[in-house]
Structures are given as structure tokens and as C-alpha cells.
Amino acid sequence: MDHITAGEYWNKNAEAWTKLARAGYDVYRDHLNTPGFLAMLPPVVGLYGLDIGCGEGHNTRKVAALGASMAAIDIAEVFIRHARSEETRVPLGIIYQQASAVELPFAEGEFDFATAFMSVMDIPETERVLAEAFRILKPNGFLQFSLLHPCFNPPHRRACRDEDNVAYAIEVGDYFIDAKGRIDEWTFGVAPLSVRERIPKFKVPRFHRPISQWFNLLIAAGFLVERVEEPMPSDEVVRAWPVLQEAQVAANFLHVRVRKPGAK
Prior knowledge:
By secondary structure, the chain is an alpha/beta fold. It has helices at 3-22, 27-40, 58-64, 77-89, 126-136, 193-198, 211-221, 235-240, and strands spanning 48-52, 69-74, 95-98, 111-117, 137-148, 156-161, 167-173, 182-186, 202-206, 224-229, 253-259. The protein has a single domain, classed as 3-Layer(aba) Sandwich (Rossmann fold), CATH 3.40.50.150.
């Protein structure tokens, strides 16, 4: 599978994904992943940034609200249509463009920074994605991205729960097996059954890589690793959103910031 075929899957997911996420059913994003990502993000006031794989623009808007001037791309036309519609409704100066992360339509050294919220893991040509991100960054610019934690979300994963349905361990397997675009079908579990019955499940291609491959690819692309985080929900957040409790047992997400070396 290549990025074009993967993008076709995401374009088919985009309508339902946008509807459910905007209704508040993406609780892992809203109450764990994005807050952790933004807490790790360096100051971006006055900087020019690119959001790679922006989806319907939720996280792009969050970064723009921190004071950055933002451009954003996604390969899925439906996502871009929804993102542009929201930009029209609430203008933040974000320029959305349909494009692939493996062929970014921007000049070398155009951006101060780039973000990629849960997107680089969905593109099989990872080397090209990282090379393109490196190319469009200015010297000393940074890329910050998030992905499913490779150690705790390999092709086989199961939460082990006690009699009270409280997770106490995560069972993992097939860590060294490349999923090669295996299609996972799922939806947001907190959505009411009546909603889930009306909307088809997402079909999401998986391209699992062991954590060593991720860091070796970043090094090969020329990046310097600057910071790594594994967000964990607080007890307060878990009380409000019990579904997040298993993320206190093992990390669901990995956040990485890398930097393009400065000019010598």
C-alpha cells in the first residue's frame, strides 16, 4: 500500500470522523493526546508553522490559537473541505491545502516549525515524509509529532482487566511484525450505541514500526532528537473520563520533538 491508497481510506473515513470528533467523542484526543502535545510544544508566537496531515483542522486551530501563523495539508479532500469550512466560520488565517506529506508543495526552508498530530504513522513512505519535513524547515526549525506508542500499540494489543473492569496490564505482541497496511476497523467507543449503529466504522490502515526504527529514521533524515514524552492522564481526568484509565497503565501515545541543525 502507498500513500495514495492510504489517503483514499482516510478520505472515506473523513465525513464520519469529522462528525463524531466535533461531537466530542474523540476523548483520547481531547483529554489526553492534544493537551499533552500542546504542553510539550515550544513557544510559537509569531512563527510560521505547517501542520502535516491536519485532518479537519482541530489541532491546527489549537496551534494557531497559540499565536502561530499556520498552513496545513491533508491528502483527504473531505477533511480539507471541512477544515476550510470551519476557517470560513471562524477565521484564524489558516491556509488549508490538499496535498500529500510525501510531496509537500512548499519551498525549502519555508517554515519555522512543523507539527504532525497522529499522522506520520499512517503513511507507509515514512522516510519520504521525514525527508520532506526536514526540507521545508528553516535551519534550527523543529518538527513535533505524535503517534500511537509503538511499544504498547503493536499489531496485537489487549487491555487486561479485573472484575471491576479496571485495567491492570496491557498485553502486546507481534512487536517486530510490520503491519503493512493491515486494515483495522473501529469507532469512538464513547459514542452512544444509537450513533455507532448509524455511522460506519472507520477503516484505518496500520503501518507499525518498532520504536528503534522510528528513531533511526529520524537520525537518518538529519534530525536531532530534542524531547520525548509519553502523556499519562491525571486521576482527575480519569474520574471525568474513565475510559482513559488504561492509559495510566501503559502509554497510549508517544510525542517526539526533533530539530533541523542550525546553519554552520
